[in-house]
Amino acid sequence: MAVAVKICGLSRPEAVAAAVAGGAAFVGFVFYPRSPRAVTPDEAGQLAAAVPAGIVRTGLFVDADDEAIAATLAAAPLDLLQLHGDETPERVAAIRAHFGRSVMKVLPIAEEEDVAAADRYLAVVDRLMFDAKPPRRPGALPGGNGLAFDWRLLAGRSWPVPWMLAGGLTAATLAEAVRLTGAPAVDVSSGVEDAPGVKSVAKIAAFLAAARAL
Q1: Is the terminal CB of the chain with fewer CB neighbours within 10 Å at N or C?
Q2: What is the Cα–Cα distance from 6 to 55, expressed in whole angstroms?
Q3: How confident is the model at residue 144, as a pLDDT?
Q4: How far apart are CA 38 and CA 111, in angstroms?
Q5: In the prediction, which pLDDT does 141 show?
Q6: CA–CA gap between residue 188 and residue 170 (Å, rounded)
Q7: Is the pTM above the cut of 0.85?
Q8: What is the pLDDT of residues 61-91, one digit of tens each?
Q9: CA 4 from centre of chain
Q10: Which of 40, 9, 32 is nearest to 166 (CA)?
């Protein structure tokens, strides 16, 4: 696949199967209780058991404490910890060292200075993700809002660690997003859903087909 794809927010076996069959490089499980895509550690463990070796099993956490992460890892075999909250570089480094897992820090983007914030994390992460900044309303989720940011903010940029593009991607917008950003990997959640938290097997297949065609 020309562009690696992460299908995030998986919560049902048929959606996991579609991601695997379509060639996803990453599958993501959400452990943020307020999200409509949230799963329990036990549920994630059962879903992850169907994921073949070589596909990166990712867990999304939002400002989680060590106890919550440990409880999740005890039930769900995760390869990558996606930190989607306000975690500082120091907290990211501590999680990475304590749990011995690869970590990916998500940066919320709306303007140029948000992109520059990535530099603070380069020494403590294995990957970066650039996602749209959440809407300014009470109770807004940190991600999975179906919003895109100005992709031109990433044009011509590179980092010494692998990175992903997220935020409002669909099969129809993927090619333009990759053209503008040069993203080597992308993350999609709401863009392959029929409703919040309800993944569409057909949309997962279409998105992965669009990625293969790039």
Answers
A1: C
A2: 9
A3: 65
A4: 29
A5: 67
A6: 7
A7: yes
A8: 999 999 999 999 999 999 999 999 999 999 9
A9: 12
A10: 9
Residue with tokens 């990535």: 118
Enter the tokens of residue 3.
């562009």
Q: Which residue has the tokens 């970590």?
A: 103
DSSP code at position 38: B
- CA-closest candidate to residue 20, choices 210, 155, 205, 211: 205
d(CA 43, CA 140): 25
DSSP-derived pairing of the beta strands 127-132 and 102-109 = parallel
- Say how far apart CA 11 and CA 27 lie, in whole Å: 11
Q: Token digits for 207?
A: 């998105």
Overall size of the chain counted in residues? 214
Distance CA 122, CA 133 (A): 20
CATH 3.20.20.60 given to domain 4-212: no
- Short-list 36, 48, 105, 35, CA closest to 74: 48
Query: CA 7, CA 18: separation in Å to the nearest integer?
Result: 10
Element (H, E) at 42: helix 41-48
